Amino acid sequence: MIEYHTATIGDRKIGKDLPVLVQTMYDSAIPHDKAGLQELLRRIGALNAMGCDILRFSYPSLEDHESFSWLCRHSPIPLVADIHFDYTLALDAIACGAQKIRINPGNIGARWKVDEVVRSALDNNVAIRIGLNSGSLPKGEESMPYLMSNSALEYLGWFESLGFYNSVVSLKASDGETTYEANRLFASQSGYPIHLGVTEAGSVVSSVTRSTWALGRLLSLGIGNTLRISITGDIETEVHSGVELLRTLGLRKGGIRIVSCPRCGRHSFDSQGFLQSIEKELLSVSKPLTVAIMGCQVNGPGEAKHADIAITGIGKDIFLYEKGKLVRKVKLEEARDAVLEAVRNAE
């Protein structure tokens, strides 16, 4: 019988039958100036509005202590410190107020160093993610999925010997099938929460395709408690992709569902350009609405019947629908504000 565990990450809990959370990783060094920190805090707020639940930071230097401490105190979502090689950085990140740290016990050094980190996390109610990638594992004769799963089980045994159970495990590879098999195997043997991701997955198209194939199957089996869609690109796109995957699987409710046509030779309205101009604002809205952005009058009225709010146009004349009814005709330059106003007023 598998014993299931719940991990506490700041004010969030993850585990069996709890909501799956979306995570991303900050894409630059932590700023040390006040203006930079304020701007970063605004960005964290925007990521949170899009659906990001947890944010991870690289923590490579003690010089980041003051800035990271400030972020931990002011962030609206839990922050994670990503640690490699130096156990003193993990201890320092915990002292800063990190709600979770990510380590690979195999590259921290001697066992006593790992124990020091675990004891500090236990004393401060900080979660630890055991993060194992296929390229940073101990040597072994087993197949990669078995080596990943068995390594994680061994490290969990170390933690449990110290009375620590606030653990999360991630088993990632750049190959989707290895990721799938490793996580499926681990979930059959352990009830600890799992963070899902395909590492080094590439640009938007390749990453979303690989990640959806691997993570979607795992989530459909009830495997996975947090996820990250790793993209060589904007972290906002990572969050958008993760949230959309959960919505598609029925694992997250609320938020704007965008329907937009791919455009063809009949288009009389630049649906692509309009979507790019308004998408970020729409994705930050928590109302459970469907917004359709259509490029011509062929499919526009039909889609409008099924959308809460829809827009299409002919030339510079833009037509706004609400609940399938034409309610306004506006100029092109007024269209963006008209849609956002309709979203704000929608019930």
Description:
The protein is an alpha/beta fold and 347 residues long. It folds into two domains: 7-248, Dihydropteroate synthase-like (TIM Barrel, Alpha-Beta Barrel); 257-345, Sulfite Reductase Hemoprotein, domain 1. It is built from twelve helices and 15 strands. An eight-stranded parallel beta barrel has the order 3-4-5-6-7-8-9-10, surrounded by five helices. A five-stranded mixed sheet has the order 11-12-13-14-15, sandwiched between helices. Helix 3 (87-96) links the parallel strand 5 and strand 6. The protein is elongated and about 70 Å long. The model has no long low-confidence stretch (mean pLDDT 90).
Question: CA-to-CA gap between the ends?
Answer: 47 Å
Count of distinct structural domains: 2
Percentage beta strand:
15-25%
Kindly provide the name of the CATH class of the largest domain. Alpha Beta
Quickly give the CATH architecture of the largest domain: Alpha-Beta Barrel
What's the helix count?
12
How big is the Rg?
23 Å
Report the average pLDDT across residues. Answer: 90
The global form is elongated
Largest sheet: 8 strands, parallel, barrel
Unreliable sequence segments? none
Helix content: 40-55%
CATH topology of the largest domain: TIM Barrel
CATH superfamily of the largest domain: Dihydropteroate synthase-like
Give the class from helix and strand content and strand pairing: alpha/beta
- The total strand number stands at 15
Element pattern in H and E: EEEHEHEHEHHEHEHEHEHEHEHEEEH
Q: How do the strands line up in the largest sheet?
A: 3-4-5-6-7-8-9-10
